[in-house]
Amino acid sequence: MIKYVAISTAAKAFSLNDTTRAAYRKLGNVVLEKMRVSGGITQPYVDRAVRLVNYCDRLELLAPGDKVLELGTGWVHWEATVLRLFFDVEVALYDVWDNRLLGAYTSWLAQLHDRIDDEFAHLSEARRGQAKKIARQAMHVRTFEELYRTLNFTYVVDPSGTLKGVPQNHYALAVSADVLEHVQGEQLPSYLADMRRCLVPGGASVHQIDLVDHFHYFDTKASPKNYYRYSDKAWRRWFESDVQYFNRIQRPTWIRLFENAGFELDVADNVSAHLAPLKLAPIYRDLRTEDLDCMQLLIVHHNPSS
């Protein structure tokens, strides 16, 4: 727990003002790019790619020419790129700050190219061939502007973190991975309502939500849901920060938030792991075991046509 406390304390220190937050992001980008290039593509990212394509195929979420919105597009535009390789779509890349890493992006895209035949063997040879052709065109770009022209992407940075400026009834699909847990909890009702507003009638949303305590990634000896120990008051005082914010919202509440925003649920898959005994703060004591053990929530919704 010493490392856990040290990391969370450092995150609070970096959250003091605009200067410290900017320093954190700049330092993080330098370190992250070296890690991504040297470490190579990871299996969870490949699994995300296969799962996303399978959801879109099985549920028939996309048609040629559709417009897609990727929320929290991050350093690698992963979901957007995967969709563009396998579907003829236009993608808007939406984020709250610019942490793009071109070297890491092209490195990972080249590695994905080499794994397409194995990982997507269930798709037709023609479709795999087209995906590899697009990947080859994109993985040799020298600037992000060239990449966006090649893939028909539009990049938008909106520091407000809201979706108020996103056009209404415009997108066939909104997609994100490991993003929604970073939206401020009190903002989620309006955020999800605006997400639904930007979708065409019948449009879909596909999201992977990470419910793991994010400080666990820095201190794996801590429980994957160590935050269960703390009340909201204690968490805000000792651990919550701007640069490593995650909202601690659990599976039942996520399901309810999307329902309250007017979405209709199509798929709710869990990635779970049994937790060792852990003292629970009162706010978590009513959760069922299956919800306590949920580490990752994979949800697909649609925007009702009526």
From TrEMBL:
InterPro entries: SAM-dependent_MTases_sf (IPR029063). Coiled coil: none annotated. It holds the Pfam family Methyltransf_23. Keywords: Methyltransferase, Transferase. One of its GO terms (molecular function) is methyltransferase activity. GO terms for biological process: methylation. This is Methyltransferase domain-containing protein.
